[in-house]
């Protein structure tokens, strides 16, 4: 089935997370061609050789054709770094192929939206700058099925200090935390930009240790507001030491979810769930990208989406996503909920 496709172009595919994504795409779809794109052709070709059924290509984001010529050569474009010129998005629109981006902060999404609005019928555009490309929002949406109504969603995420990933991930983190005037939250039903003292929080790790955290706003907050209409939504990031590393093991990545609302029986309901991947953030981010690629190509979940502007949770089934997270090593644990959502 997959062999009918031209290669999926992964820009940044020779980086830490990009390489993981290529491996997972290969595992899910053994015959789907892949083009590993990067500035260093030798490095891209080395990754392509390891993956198998792949090629390495040199990509230049300063050029309108990405340095790849004008011929239609790819079936989709995925980009793992911030493209300040949107050359990669325009390239996808020109060739009428799906585009998946991962590196925009909530406060800087305007240029991509404007680019789509001016060419709405050219390509399917998927904006996937959620926490770890969907690893928090999809479990929340699956848990939300047990609620009649949701009042509060509190998400805690821990990024271990040794788990930043490659230079592109570090650049994204520094840009978003350095340039964002504040973090988007929902407070008492209103969108609220939390800054200064208001942005400070405490994160309770999966081993009970409390750590300093700060409000952070990947796309999860605005997407959850649109989907759940919850009156209070906030995501707090702790950049610290994971519970596994405190035990003397390798770093892991953690996601904690506290939801409060009304259950299907009409009674108040509070839940706390903890998600851990023992190998850190890269496998979960890569999995999210792989699931986005297969969905945008129509390899899972139905026909490929028509040209339009999409968020992952609109086109990917939450139960399927969570199932894949478990298959690829994430553990899910339900804990005793506190009196107030943490």
Keywords, separated by commas or semicolons:
342 residues; alpha/beta; Rossmann fold; Dihydrodipicolinate Reductase, domain 2; seven-stranded parallel beta sheet; 11 helices; 16 strands; 29% strand; globular
Describe the structure.
- This protein is α/β, with parallel strands linked by helices.
- The chain has two domains: about 1-130 and about 285-315, NAD(P)-binding Rossmann-like Domain (Rossmann fold, 3-Layer(aba) Sandwich), CATH 3.40.50.720; about 135-280 and about 320-335, Dihydrodipicolinate Reductase, domain 2 (2-Layer Sandwich), CATH 3.30.360.10.
- Helices cover about 30% and strands about 30% of the residues.
- The protein has eleven helices and 16 strands.
- The protein has helices spanning about 15-30, 40-50, 85-95, 110-115, 135-145, 165-180, 220-230, 245, 280-295, 310-315, 320-325, and strands spanning about 10, 35-40, 55-60, 75-80, 100, 125, 145-160, 185, 190-195, 200-205, 210-215, 230-240, 255-265, 270-275, 310, 330-335.
- The strands form three sheets. A seven-stranded parallel β-sheet has the order 3-2-1-4-5-6-15, with helices on both faces.
- Strand 4, helix 3 (about 85-95) and strand 5 form a beta-alpha-beta unit.
- It is globular.
- The N and C termini lie far apart (about 45 Å).
């Amino acid at each position: 089935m997959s062999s009918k496709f031209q290669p999926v172009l992964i820009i940044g595919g020779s980086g830490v997370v990009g390489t993981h994504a290529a491996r997972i795409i290969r595992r899910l779809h053994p015959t789907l061609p892949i083009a590993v794109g990067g500035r260093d052709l030798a490095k891209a070709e080395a990754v392509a050789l390891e993956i198998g059924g792949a090629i390495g290509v040199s990509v230049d984001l300063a050029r309108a054709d990405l340095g790849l010529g004008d011929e239609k050569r790819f079936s989709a474009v995925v980009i793992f770094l911030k493209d300040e010129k949107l050359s990669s998005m325009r390239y996808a629109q020109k060739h009428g192929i799906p585009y998946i981006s991962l590196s925009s902060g909530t406060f800087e999404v305007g240029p991509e939206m404007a680019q789509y609005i001016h060419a709405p019928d050219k390509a399917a555009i998927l904006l996937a700058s959620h926490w770890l490309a969907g690893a928090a929002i999809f479990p929340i949406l699956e848990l939300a099925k047990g609620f009649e109504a949701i009042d509060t969603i509190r998400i805690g995420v821990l990024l271990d200090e040794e788990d930043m990933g490659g230079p592109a991930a570090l650049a994204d983190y520094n840009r978003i935390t350095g340039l964002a005037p504040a973090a988007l939250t929902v407070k008492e039903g209103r969108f609220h930009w939390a800054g200064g003292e208001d942005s400070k929080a405490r994160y309770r790790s999966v081993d009970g240790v409390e750590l300093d955290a700060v409000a952070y706003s990947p796309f999860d907050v605005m997407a959850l507001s649109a989907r759940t209409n919850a009156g209070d939504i906030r995501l707090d990031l702790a950049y610290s030491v994971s519970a596994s590393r405190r035990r003397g093991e390798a770093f892991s990545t953690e996601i904690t979810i506290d939801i409060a609302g009304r259950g299907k029986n009409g009674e108040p309901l509070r839940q706390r769930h903890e998600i851990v991947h023992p190998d850190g953030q890269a496998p979960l981010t890569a999995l999210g990208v792989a699931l986005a690629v297969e969905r945008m190509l129509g390899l899972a979940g139905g026909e490929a989406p028509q040209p339009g502007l999409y968020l992952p949770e609109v086109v990917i089934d939450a139960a399927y996503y969570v199932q894949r997270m478990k298959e690829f090593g994430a553990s899910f644990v339900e804990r005793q909920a506190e009196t107030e959502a943490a």
